[in-house]
Design goal:
mainly alpha, Sodium/glucose cotransporter, two-stranded antiparallel sheet, 2 strands, globular
C-alpha cells in the first residue's frame, strides 16, 4: 500500500495526541504521589461514558479487526454472535455481578475469590490469569497487529511487534489505568470512525459507486451463504489456509451458540476477566458502572459492521489472499484511497495499542495486588507497589513481544484465542457463578473446579474431537458446577459457607436510564437474529 505524506501526518498526529493525552491526564498533582487506587483503579472516578468507551477500546483489537474479519471471510456473519451476544451479556453482568463486586471494594477478581473462598483459590486463579494474559492475549494482539503493519505498510513482523509494544508502553506504564481509560475515549472514536469509513468505502466500491446501501444489498445477494447466523452441520463448508475443507459448524455449532458454550465464553470474558471488569471497578458509583456497560452494549451491536462485513466483502470479491487473516489488510490496501488510509490505519492502531495497554495494566494489577503484596511485599508502601506494577507491565509486554512471531503458523488466530482461553474459562466461571449466587459453595470445591478445568477440556478435546469447542465449553461448565455442588454438599452437610455473599437488595436499585437502555439492546439483538437467522 502506498502511503502519502497526508497519511503519515494523520497517523503521526493520532500518535502524538494519544501519548500526550495519556501523560497529561496521569500527571501527579503537586504534593500528591500516585497510590494503588490511582494507578490501578483511576482513583475510582470514571463516569459512564469513559467506562463504556474504555471497555470497547480494550476489547476491540487486532483480534477483531484482523482475526474476526478473517473469520468473516471464512465463516460469514455467524461469527458476529460473539459481538451481539456480548451486548446481552453486558446487561447480565451489570445487573447481577457488578453490585456485588463494587460492594466488596475489590481491586482484582482473585481478591474477590479470596473473600468468598480462601487464599489458595486467589493465588491459583491469579497465576492462571497471568499466564493467559501474557501467553495468549498480549502475544496474539501483538502478532495480529504486526501482521497488519506488514500487510499495509510493508513493515517487517519483528519491527511491527516492537513498534506496537513501545507505543503502548510509553503512556500506559507511567499513568496506569487513568491514562489507559481516558485515552480510550479518544481511541474508541478513532477506531469506530475509521472502521466505519473502511466499511463504507468497501461497500461503495462493491456497488460500483452506487452507494453503501446498494453495496450491502448486492453483498447479501452475491454472498447469501455468508449471512446466516445459525449454522447447521454441513451447511457452510470452507477451505482453511492449508486448503483443507472444513465445516463451519465445528466453530459455530448452530443453536449451541445461542444456548450453550457462547454464554460461558461471554460471561467469563465480561464478568470475570480482570482487564475488562477493571473499568467498572473504577466507576464513581454503581449507577455509572451499569450505564457504562449498557453504552458498551450498544457499541457491540455496531461492531460487526466494522469487523465482520469487511471480511465478507473480501470473500465476495474473491480476494487473492492465502490466509483468512489477510482479508482486512488487503481490503484497506485495495479500496481505501490516499489521504484516508492514515485515518483508517490509525483506527486499527487505536484498537491494538488500547488493548495492549489495558492488558499490561491488568497483568500488573493482578501480579502486584494478588501475588507480590500477599507473598513478598506485605509491608510495601503504596509507592513501592506502584513501582512493582510498572515493572510487571514491562516484563509482560517484553515476554509477549518475544513470543508473538510464533503464532505465524496458525490459521484463524481469533479462533485460537477463543479455544485455548476456553480450556480455563468453564471451570473459572463455575467458581464465580457458584460463589456469587450459591451460599453453600466451599473453597475446596472451587479449588477442584479450577484444577480440573484444563484436564477436563483437554480430555474432551482428545476423546471427543468431533464435539465443537463451544459445546465442549458448555459441557465442562455444567460438569464443573456439578462438581462444586457435590463436593460442597459433602463438606458442608447442606450448611451455608461462612464466606457466602450476602447482599440485601443492592442489585434491585432502580435506574430508569439503565432499564430503558437494556430493553433497547434486547429488542435490537432479537431483531438482528430474526433478520439473519
Amino acid at each position: 500500500m502506498h502511503f502519502t505524506a497526508l497519511d503519515y501526518v494523520i497517523f503521526a498526529l493520532y500518535g502524538a495526541v494519544i501519548v500526550g493525552l495519556g501523560l497529561w491526564v496521569s500527571r501527579e498533582r503537586e504534593g500528591h504521589q500516585k497510590d494503588t487506587s490511582d494507578y490501578f483503579l483511576a482513583g475510582k472516578a470514571l463516569p459512564w461514558w469513559a467506562i463504556g468507551a474504555s471497555l470497547i477500546a480494550s476489547n476491540i483489537s487486532a483480534e477483531q479487526f484482523i482475526g474476526m474479519s478473517g473469520s468473516g471471510f471464512r465463516l460469514g456473519l455467524a461469527i458476529a454472535s460473539y459481538e451481539w451476544m456480548a451486548a446481552v451479556t453486558l446487561l447480565v453482568i451489570a445487573y447481577f455481578f457488578l453490585p456485588i463486586y463494587l460492594e466488596k471494594g475489590i481491586y482484582t477478581m482473585p481478591q474477590f475469590l479470596e473473600q468468598r473462598y480462601d487464599g489458595r483459590v486467589r493465588t491459583l486463579l491469579a497465576v492462571f490469569w497471568l499466564l493467559v494474559y501474557v501467553f495468549v492475549n498480549l502475544t496474539s494482539v501483538l502478532y495480529l497487529g504486526a501482521l497488519a503493519l506488514e500487510g499495509i505498510m510493508g513493515i517487517s513482523l519483528w519491527a511491527g511487534i516492537l513498534g506496537l509494544a513501545l507505543f503502548a508502553t510509553v503512556y500506559s506504564i507511567y499513568g496506569g489505568l487513568k491514562a489507559v481509560a481516558w485515552t480510550d475515549v479518544v481511541q474508541v472514536l478513532v477506531l469506530v470512525g475509521g472502521g466505519l469509513l473502511t466499511t463504507y468505502l468497501a461497500l461503495d466500491a462493491y456497488s460500483d459507486g452506487a452507494g453503501v446501501i446498494a453495496g450491502f444489498g448486492k453483498l447479501i445477494q452475491d454472498a447469501g451463504d455468508r449471512f446466516n447466523m445459525i449454522l447447521y452441520p454441513g451447511e457452510l463448508l470452507y477451505r482453511d489456509d492449508t486448503g483443507t475443507l472444513q465445516d463451519a459448524y465445528q466453530l459455530l455449532p448452530g443453536l449451541g451458540v445461542l444456548l450453550g458454550g457462547m454464554w460461558v465464553a461471554n460471561l467469563f470474558y465480561w464478568g470475570c476477566n480482570q482487564y475488562i471488569i477493571q473499568r467498572a471497578l473504577a466507576a464513581r458509583s454503581l449507577q455509572e458502572a451499569r450505564r457504562g456497560l449498557a453504552f458498551a452494549g450498544y457499541l457491540k451491536l455496531l461492531l460487526p459492521l466494522i469487523v465482520v462485513v469487511p471480511g465478507i466483502v473480501a470473500y465476495a470479491l474473491d480476494a487473492p489472499i492465502t490466509r483468512g487473516d489477510e482479508a482486512y489488510p488487503w481490503l484497506l490496501a485495495s479500496y481505501v484511497g490516499p489521504g484516508l488510509r492514515g485515518l483508517a490505519f490509525a483506527a486499527l492502531a487505536a484498537a491494538i495499542v488500547s488493548s495492549l495497554a489495558s492488558m499490561m495494566n491488568s497483568t500488573a494489577t493482578i501480579f502486584t495486588m494478588d501475588l507480590y503484596r500477599n507473598m513478598i511485599g506485605r509491608k510495601a508502601s503504596e509507592a513501592q507497589l506502584v513501582r512493582v506494577g510498572r515493572l510487571a507491565s514491562l516484563v509482560a509486554i517484553t515476554i509477549g513481544a518475544l513470543l508473538a512471531p510464533q503464532l505465524a503458523a496458525l490459521d484463524q488466530v481469533f479462533q485460537y484465542i477463543q479455544e485455548y482461553t476456553g480450556f480455563i474459562s468453564p471451570g473459572v466461571l463455575a467458581i464465580f457463578v457458584m460463589g456469587l449466587f450459591w451460599k453453600k459453595a466451599t473453597p475446596n470445591a472451587a479449588l477442584v473446579s479450577a484444577l480440573l478445568s484444563i484436564p477436563l477440556s483437554a480430555g474432551m478435546k482428545v476423546l471427543a474431537p468431533e464435539v465443537p469447542f463451544l459445546n465442549r465449553m458448555g459441557y465442562v461448565f455444567l460438569l464443573s458446577v456439578a462438581l462444586i455442588m457435590v463436593i460442597s454438599w459433602a463438606e458442608g452437610k447442606g450448611r451455608d459457607h461462612p464466606n457466602a455473599v450476602r447482599l440485601a437488595g443492592t442489585r434491585l436499585a432502580a435506574d430508569p436510564v439503565f432499564t430503558a437502555a437494556a430493553f433497547g439492546i434486547l429488542g435490537i439483538t432479537a431483531a438482528l437474529y430474526a433478520l439473519f437467522w
